[in-house]
Protein backbone atom coordinates (compact mmCIF):
# COMPACT_ATOMS: atom_id res chain seq x y z
CA UNK A 1 0.00 0.00 0.00
CA UNK A 2 1.40 3.43 -0.93
CA UNK A 3 0.38 7.07 -0.76
CA UNK A 4 -2.17 8.38 1.72
CA UNK A 5 -3.65 4.92 2.29
CA UNK A 6 -0.23 3.56 3.21
CA UNK A 7 0.45 6.52 5.46
CA UNK A 8 -2.90 5.96 7.17
CA UNK A 9 -2.12 2.27 7.69
CA UNK A 10 1.20 3.29 9.25
CA UNK A 11 -0.64 5.73 11.51
CA UNK A 12 -3.01 2.94 12.56
CA UNK A 13 -0.07 0.68 13.38
CA UNK A 14 1.37 3.46 15.53
CA UNK A 15 -2.02 3.92 17.21
CA UNK A 16 -2.07 0.22 18.07
CA UNK A 17 1.22 0.86 19.87
CA UNK A 18 -0.43 3.68 21.84
CA UNK A 19 1.00 6.62 19.88
CA UNK A 20 -1.27 9.57 20.71
CA UNK A 21 0.47 11.83 18.19
CA UNK A 22 -0.41 9.38 15.39
CA UNK A 23 -4.01 9.37 16.59
CA UNK A 24 -4.06 13.16 16.60
CA UNK A 25 -2.79 13.20 13.01
CA UNK A 26 -5.47 10.75 11.90
CA UNK A 27 -8.14 12.64 13.82
CA UNK A 28 -7.16 15.96 12.21
CA UNK A 29 -7.13 14.38 8.76
CA UNK A 30 -10.57 12.81 9.16
CA UNK A 31 -12.48 15.44 11.12
CA UNK A 32 -13.29 17.63 8.07
CA UNK A 33 -13.90 14.65 5.77
CA UNK A 34 -16.26 12.98 8.21
CA UNK A 35 -17.89 16.33 8.95
CA UNK A 36 -18.79 16.82 5.28
CA UNK A 37 -20.04 13.24 4.96
CA UNK A 38 -22.06 13.27 8.17
CA UNK A 39 -23.37 16.77 7.52
CA UNK A 40 -25.43 15.40 4.70
CA UNK A 41 -26.78 12.53 6.77
CA UNK A 42 -27.29 14.03 10.19
CA UNK A 43 -27.70 17.80 9.70
CA UNK A 44 -27.18 18.57 13.38
CA UNK A 45 -23.82 20.05 14.31
CA UNK A 46 -23.78 18.66 17.87
CA UNK A 47 -24.72 15.18 16.62
CA UNK A 48 -22.11 15.36 13.83
CA UNK A 49 -19.42 16.18 16.36
CA UNK A 50 -20.62 13.41 18.66
CA UNK A 51 -20.59 10.87 15.84
CA UNK A 52 -17.10 11.93 14.75
CA UNK A 53 -15.82 11.67 18.30
CA UNK A 54 -17.51 8.28 18.79
CA UNK A 55 -16.05 7.10 15.49
CA UNK A 56 -12.55 8.19 16.37
CA UNK A 57 -12.85 6.64 19.83
CA UNK A 58 -13.59 3.32 18.12
CA UNK A 59 -10.55 3.89 15.87
CA UNK A 60 -8.39 4.47 18.96
CA UNK A 61 -9.78 1.47 20.83
CA UNK A 62 -10.07 -0.95 17.92
CA UNK A 63 -7.13 0.01 15.70
CA UNK A 64 -5.72 -3.48 16.22
CA UNK A 65 -8.85 -4.95 14.62
CA UNK A 66 -8.14 -3.26 11.28
CA UNK A 67 -7.11 -6.16 9.07
CA UNK A 68 -6.06 -4.37 5.89
CA UNK A 69 -8.82 -5.99 3.80
CA UNK A 70 -10.00 -2.51 2.75
CA UNK A 71 -8.63 1.02 2.75
CA UNK A 72 -8.28 2.72 6.12
CA UNK A 73 -10.71 5.37 4.89
CA UNK A 74 -13.30 2.71 4.06
CA UNK A 75 -12.93 1.24 7.54
CA UNK A 76 -13.30 4.63 9.22
CA UNK A 77 -16.23 5.75 7.04
CA UNK A 78 -18.01 2.46 7.76
CA UNK A 79 -17.66 3.07 11.49
CA UNK A 80 -18.95 6.63 11.05
CA UNK A 81 -21.88 5.46 8.93
CA UNK A 82 -22.97 2.93 11.56
CA UNK A 83 -22.53 5.47 14.37
CA UNK A 84 -24.57 8.04 12.41
CA UNK A 85 -27.41 5.58 11.82
CA UNK A 86 -27.40 4.75 15.53
CA UNK A 87 -27.37 8.47 16.36
CA UNK A 88 -30.27 9.17 14.02
CA UNK A 89 -32.34 6.39 15.58
CA UNK A 90 -31.74 7.82 19.05
CA UNK A 91 -32.22 11.45 18.07
CA UNK A 92 -35.47 13.31 18.23
CA UNK A 93 -33.93 16.43 16.71
CA UNK A 94 -35.20 17.61 13.33
CA UNK A 95 -33.05 16.59 10.39
CA UNK A 96 -33.35 19.86 8.51
CA UNK A 97 -30.84 22.68 8.78
CA UNK A 98 -29.10 25.37 6.81
CA UNK A 99 -27.04 23.77 4.00
CA UNK A 100 -24.58 26.67 4.25
CA UNK A 101 -23.52 25.24 7.62
CA UNK A 102 -21.92 22.31 5.80
CA UNK A 103 -19.45 23.58 3.23
CA UNK A 104 -18.63 20.92 0.68
CA UNK A 105 -15.60 22.14 -1.18
CA UNK A 106 -12.92 24.72 -1.76
CA UNK A 107 -13.72 28.42 -1.61
CA UNK A 108 -15.25 29.77 -4.78
CA UNK A 109 -13.67 32.58 -6.73
CA UNK A 110 -15.17 35.96 -5.76
CA UNK A 111 -16.74 36.66 -9.17
CA UNK A 112 -18.58 33.32 -9.06
CA UNK A 113 -19.45 33.28 -5.36
CA UNK A 114 -23.12 34.21 -5.62
CA UNK A 115 -23.78 32.00 -8.63
CA UNK A 116 -21.94 29.11 -7.02
CA UNK A 117 -23.89 29.47 -3.77
CA UNK A 118 -27.20 29.55 -5.59
CA UNK A 119 -26.30 26.49 -7.63
CA UNK A 120 -25.07 24.68 -4.51
CA UNK A 121 -28.35 25.47 -2.74
CA UNK A 122 -30.31 24.03 -5.65
CA UNK A 123 -28.19 20.88 -5.54
CA UNK A 124 -28.44 20.62 -1.72
CA UNK A 125 -32.23 20.90 -1.88
CA UNK A 126 -32.37 18.19 -4.54
CA UNK A 127 -30.02 15.89 -2.60
CA UNK A 128 -32.06 16.41 0.56
CA UNK A 129 -35.13 15.07 -1.23
CA UNK A 130 -33.43 11.75 -1.99
CA UNK A 131 -33.83 8.81 0.39
CA UNK A 132 -30.97 8.61 2.90
CA UNK A 133 -29.49 5.47 1.31
CA UNK A 134 -29.25 7.25 -2.06
CA UNK A 135 -27.82 10.42 -0.47
CA UNK A 136 -25.08 8.40 1.20
CA UNK A 137 -24.09 6.73 -2.08
CA UNK A 138 -23.95 10.09 -3.87
CA UNK A 139 -21.90 11.76 -1.12
CA UNK A 140 -19.41 8.93 -0.85
CA UNK A 141 -19.02 8.79 -4.63
CA UNK A 142 -18.72 12.47 -5.44
CA UNK A 143 -17.50 14.13 -2.25
CA UNK A 144 -15.18 11.35 -1.08
CA UNK A 145 -14.31 9.72 -4.41
CA UNK A 146 -15.06 6.20 -3.26
CA UNK A 147 -15.74 3.38 -5.67
CA UNK A 148 -18.79 1.16 -5.48
CA UNK A 149 -16.92 -1.67 -3.73
CA UNK A 150 -15.72 0.71 -1.01
CA UNK A 151 -19.19 2.17 -0.59
CA UNK A 152 -20.62 -1.34 -0.30
CA UNK A 153 -18.15 -1.99 2.52
CA UNK A 154 -19.06 1.28 4.24
CA UNK A 155 -22.83 0.79 4.15
CA UNK A 156 -22.76 -2.99 4.48
CA UNK A 157 -24.59 -4.03 1.36
CA UNK A 158 -23.76 -5.77 -1.94
CA UNK A 159 -22.07 -3.78 -4.73
CA UNK A 160 -25.12 -4.28 -6.96
CA UNK A 161 -27.28 -2.59 -4.32
CA UNK A 162 -24.93 0.40 -4.37
CA UNK A 163 -25.18 0.50 -8.18
CA UNK A 164 -28.97 0.35 -7.99
CA UNK A 165 -29.08 3.13 -5.41
CA UNK A 166 -26.81 5.26 -7.58
CA UNK A 167 -28.94 4.60 -10.66
CA UNK A 168 -32.11 5.67 -8.85
CA UNK A 169 -30.38 8.64 -7.20
CA UNK A 170 -29.12 9.95 -10.55
CA UNK A 171 -32.50 9.47 -12.16
CA UNK A 172 -34.31 11.24 -9.32
CA UNK A 173 -31.70 14.05 -9.20
CA UNK A 174 -32.10 14.59 -12.93
CA UNK A 175 -35.84 15.06 -12.44
CA UNK A 176 -35.46 17.25 -9.37
CA UNK A 177 -32.74 19.43 -10.88
CA UNK A 178 -34.65 19.87 -14.14
CA UNK A 179 -37.64 21.26 -12.26
CA UNK A 180 -35.52 23.38 -9.87
CA UNK A 181 -33.25 24.75 -12.58
CA UNK A 182 -36.26 26.33 -14.29
CA UNK A 183 -36.31 28.77 -11.35
CA UNK A 184 -32.52 29.27 -11.35
CA UNK A 185 -31.47 32.75 -12.61
Question: What is the topological layout?
Answer:
Layout: H1 3-16, H2 20-41, H3 45-62, H4 72-90, H5 113-128, H6 132-143, H7 148-155, H8 159-181
Helix pairs in contact: 1-2, 2-3, 2-6, 3-4, 4-7, 5-8, 6-8, 7-8
Question: What tags apply to this protein structure?
Answer:
185 residues; 8 helices; globular
Structure report:
The chain has helices spanning 3-16, 20-41, 45-62, 72-90, 113-128, 132-143, 148-155, 159-181. It contains eight helices and no strands. It has 185 residues and is mostly helical. 27% of the residues are buried.
Portion of residues in beta strands equals under 5%
Helix content: over 70%
Radius of gyration: 17 Å
| Through-space gap between termini | 47 Å
Q: Strand pairing plus helix content: what structural class?
A: mainly alpha
This entry's quaternary arrangement is single chain
Number of helices: 8
The gross shape turns out to be globular
Q: How many strands, which pairing sense, and closed or not: the largest β-sheet?
A: none
Low-confidence spans: 93-112
- The total of beta strands comes to 0
Order of helices and strands: HHHHHHHH
Mean pLDDT: 82
Amino acid sequence: MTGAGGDEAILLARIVAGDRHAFEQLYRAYFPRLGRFLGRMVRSVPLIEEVINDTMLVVWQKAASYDGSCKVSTWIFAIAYRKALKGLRGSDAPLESDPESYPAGPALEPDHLLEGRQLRQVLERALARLPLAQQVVMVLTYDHEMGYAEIADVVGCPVNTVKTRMFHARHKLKELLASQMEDYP
